[in-house]
Amino acid sequence: MGFYSVVEQWKDFDYENYFARVTDEDVLDSIYKENLTEYDLLNLLSPKAKNHLERMAQRAAELKTQHFGNIISLYMPIYISNFCTNNCTYCGFSKKNHIVRKHQTLEQIEAEAIEIAKTGVEHILMLTGEAHGLVTLDYLKDAVKVLKKHFNSVSIEVMPLEEWEYKELADIGVDGLTVYQETYNEEIYDKVHLSGKKKDYHFRLNTPERGAKAGIRTIGIGPLFGLSDIRQEAFMAGLHLKYLTDKYLNSSFAISLPRINPAEGGFQPDHPLDDVTFVQFMTTYRIFEVKADINISTREVADFRDHLMHMGITKMSVGSKTDVGGYTDNDPSTCQFEISDDRSAEETIQAIRDNGYQPVFKDWEQLV
C-alpha cells in the first residue's frame, strides 16, 4: 500500500470544518512547537495562519539557518528529449500538442553539458518526456555517463521506473530523483491524465519509495499547484514528505511548490496559488520538516525568488532552459513551460550573494 494507506485515512476528512475552527492561538502554538503533528500541519496551512505570516517567515529562516547554515545550493536542468506518450491536459509535452520535438544524441547532450559546465554549477538535473520505447533505460544510462564526465551530481526527472532500474542508474552515478505526483486527489488525477502510463496513480505515488529502496541519495516530491484544492494538496504533500523522511533514513528528501505556468495547449488552472499563500505553504514546510530541502525553480519571477531566499529555502535552479537544446541549439524545441526568472546563471548567483547568502556550486561527489 505504501503512502496510499495515508491518503485513504484522510479521504473523507472535513477540511473546511477543521479550518473554520482553527484559532490564532492554535497557529501560534504550532509555529513554535518542536515536534509537530498532522494537525499542526493543518493549522499552519489554514486561512487563519495568514494572520501570522511574519512570524512564520522568521521561524522558517531561523530553522533553515540552524540546520543548513547560510547557504543556497545551485542546480541547472537539462532537457534531453521532449517526446511523450502520455496525454496530460496541463503539460506542454503532452502527445496531443503539435510542438517541435527533439531527442538528443549523446554528442548533443555532451555539447549542452560542456556549455552548462562553464557556469561552475556542479549539480545537473536531467529531464525527459515520458516516451516509453524511445527514452529507454539504456538511453538514460548512456546520457548519465556523459553527464558524469562534467558534473559531480546528476539527478533525474524522467518517467517513473522500477526499483531495479533505479538501482542500475544509482550504480552508475545518479544520486538524485525528482518526481511530482501532480495531484494527490485520485479523481482529479484520473481526469487530467487522459491516457498513457502516467494514468496509473498508484505507480506514480510509489515512485519515491522505489527510488529510496534503490539507494538514491536525495529524492524530491511535490504537487503541481493548480490542479486541485491547494490546501488539501499542500497537506497531502506535507504528509508524504513526513512519511518518506520517517521511513527511509538513508535518503534525504526535498519538496518543491511548482505552479502551473503558461505552456503549449493553453491549460488554465482551476485552483491557482497566489504569492501570499505560496509563502505560507513554503514556510509551513520548513517549520514542519526542518531537515527537508526546499527547492524553488525558475517558474517563479526573479524578485519573488529573491525574497524567498530569506524564508527558509535551500535550493534554487539557475539559468534554466525548459527546451531540448536550449543551451546550444539555435533552433531549440518547444518549451515544456514558460520560465518566469530569465536571468542568466551568473546573474542569479550574484543575486544570491547580494542577498547575503553563499551559493553552493558543489556539496556532493560520488565516486563510481
Describe the structure.
- By secondary structure, the protein is α/β, with parallel strands linked by helices.
- It has a single domain (4-360), classed as TIM Barrel (Alpha-Beta Barrel).
- 40% of the residues lie in helices and 14% in strands.
- The protein is built from 15 helices and eleven strands.
- It has helices spanning 4-9, 15-21, 24-32, 38-45, 53-68, 106-117, 137-148, 163-171, 186-192, 201-205, 207-213, 230-247, 275-288, 302-308, 345-354, and strands at residues 71-81, 87-88, 123-128, 153-157, 174-178, 193-195, 218-221, 252-256, 293-296, 315-317, 358-360.
- An eight-stranded parallel β-barrel has the order 1-3-4-5-7-8-9-10, surrounded by six helices. A two-stranded antiparallel sheet has the order 2-6.
- Helix 12 links the parallel strand 7 (218-221) and strand 8 (252-256).
- Helix 3 packs across helix 4 (38-45) and helix 5 (53-68) packs across helix 13 (275-288).
- The longest helix is centred in the middle third of the chain and has 18 residues, at 230-247.
- The chain starts with a helix and ends in an 8-residue tail after the last strand.
